Amino acid sequence: MGKPMRAASIALLTALPLLASCDAPATTPMATSRGVQGPIVSACRAEVARKVGVSVAEVRPVDVIRTPSGTEVRALAPGRKAPWACSANRDGVILSVLYTGWS
């Protein structure tokens, strides 16, 4: 192996760990909880129920993810295959409620 090829190989091997870290998500959850209740979960369940047209009792939260910027609640509603994602800021204000599936 010539000197240019060896230098390129060393540079590539040195850069690989740095490149691998590029796939990390921009925000990593601080905590994930299942079955957690609270004011944000209740507000998100109500918003999902309103959008779907079902009772709040029919909306089942499956994940609560706390991040530095707030909370995301994922919930299942009848007749939908994918969960709904509800985002709230740190003050508990609901910012968005979106269906994560296609139909």
UniProtKB/TrEMBL annotation:
Domain of life, source organism: Bacteria
Signal recorded as keyword: yes
Signal peptide: 1-26
Keywords from the named record: Signal
The protein, known as: Uncharacterized protein
